Amino acid sequence: MKKLRIGAAKPYDGITDEELKLILNHNEMSPNNTTGLLRRVFFWICLLGCLRGGEHQTLLVEQFVDTDQGLLFKKFHQKNDQGEIEGNQYTFEILFPNDISDQITPNTDIKKYISIRPIKCKAKEFYLCVLKNES
């Protein structure tokens, strides 16, 4: 199929530094409210963790390990690998780069998101739904 140029990948320009700054500085991506922080964390994990499709749905909080060098993300086997997700086997580890003082803060944002989980939370899933009390 490659010889016939059927299904060939199309090259696209990557995101520029300026575009990255515009995205991260947008009001909807503010780390100072829960929805903005969630969007920001999702963006960082997409950008640095290279998750695809349903991998966000199966993401677990235990896949992130805090190290002296930064957050270590342990990525599961892809669904077409022999180990399957149920086996919780890791294929490789991705070290998220250290924060750049108040400019680029993937580690700070992800750690903040993890830290605001309810204290007695038993859910292993990384993404939790924000519920608001209706009084």
Estimate the global geometry from the Cα principal axes. Answer: globular
The unreliable regions are none
Let me know the largest β-sheet.
3 strands, antiparallel
Instruction: Write down how many β-strands occur, each being a DSSP E stretch of 2 or more residues.
Output: 3
Order of helices and strands: HHEEEH
Mean of residue pLDDT?
A: 81
Radius of gyration: 17 Å
Give the neighbour order of strands across the main sheet. Answer: 1-2-3
Percent helix among the residues?
25-40%
Task: Output the structural class.
Answer: alpha+beta
User: How big a fraction of the residues is strand?
Assistant: 5-15%
Number of helices: 3
- The CA-CA distance between the termini, in Å, is 60 Å
Give an account of the 3D structure.
By secondary structure, this protein is an alpha+beta fold. The chain has a domain at 30-115. Helices cover 25% and strands 13% of the residues. It has 3 helices and 3 strands. A 3-stranded antiparallel beta sheet has the order 1-2-3, with no helix packed on it. Helix 2 crosses helix 3 (106-115). It is globular. It comes from Acaulospora morrowiae. This is 15346_t:CDS:1.
Describe the structure concisely.
This protein is an alpha+beta fold.
